[in-house]
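Running low. Invent one:
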Amino acid sequence: MTRQPAPADEARGGRAGLFAWCLYDFANSAFPTVVITFVFSAYFVRAVAADVEAGTAAWGQAMAIAGLATAVLSPVLGAVADRSGRRKPWILVCSAICILAGGGLWFVRPDPSYVLLGLTLAVIASIAFEVGTVFYNAMLPDLVPPSRIGRWSGWAWGIGYLGGLLCLVVALFGLVMTPTPLFGLDKATSEHVRAVAPLTAIWFAVFALPFFVLTPDRAATGVAPWAAARAGLGRIWHTLRHLGAERNIARFLVARLFYTDALNTLFAFGGIYAAGTFGMGFDEVIMFGIALNVTAGLGAGAFGWIDDRIGPKPTILIAILGLVLFGTAVLLAESKSWFWVFGLAIGIFVGPAQAASRSLMAHLAPPERESEMFGLFALSGKATSFMGPALLAWATLAFDSQRAGMATIIVFFAIGFAILLGVDSRRRPATRQGWTAAPGHPI
């Protein structure tokens, strides 16, 4: 779809449609925050699996499968969507699958016989969530001019942190920590913890509704799905074959592959580690998740200024260095108090590593091939997302230790840091097709 010229301060589809786009991030962030990272994963390891080590390994293997499936499906379905035009139908299907599968985790009782059901539903919901996010992210360049993409993307990211935080608060005070859970839930069968699954599903469905009603979508092209898939995959293959001519971009994408895999693994296993190694209860895990969302939001906001001041590459390097230092401190910590201190410090550097990566890609991408480069940027965050969970699961089993498993995350951060050092971050000429910059708002 060719973008039509528009004033730099004008949002296509109106402010209501763009705010609804941001609100979708508020809606779907509850799933990874409450289910995958903090509450249900910890419940699975401590109450469903036979023991903590076996549960950690099984959850890691399941997340590895979900990551591999996401890597295979995302470029294929993304190619179909790009050629067929519309993205919202794909987002609707992925959202519905995530809501139904994620909500179905309510039926996973605290008994090893429910391990397979829990892992199956978690994998299906995770794949749907990740694939839906690919289409969701791809909509932003069509909604705002280039000069405003960074701020709206950042605002949506912040709103997403807020959504995950508020859903955790509801889970904490309405279900897990209260002596009398809502709706008379039975603590003996862990209903008060299992209820976070339908809570998250309802949260996702309700707050995503404005997006489907108000946010504009591309027009359908009329291209048949098979023809769209074949054309899109042909372009992807051509780009990959000629990526050697863009060695600097290739180096950045490889670096991002490693440190993003480390971040994803950290998100997936933070709650599990807190529960298994430090004996945190579900209420403590949720409180830690709330506090971590606060520090992550503060860090993302503060480092936005640093990115503008010193550039995205140094910002990413600082963020990774902080993640390595405080991540190592967490692994060495023996007391729960120090885990809290170092764990919350980690949150400060999570947002900058993600946000500045998108900024650096904007610096490096050739103006005439931006769509291709950002497509590879998205792929680099998912193509090997199975590696971190798989290595963590192997190390946990091999050394019979959660600490050993979590230490693999530090290795991935270090590799990404080393590769990124060789990236030339000098900005390319900033021309954009279709959008024009208003005075005082350079592109």
Observations:
- The first helix runs from residue 14 to 28.
- Residues 261 and 385 are 5 Å apart (CA to CA).
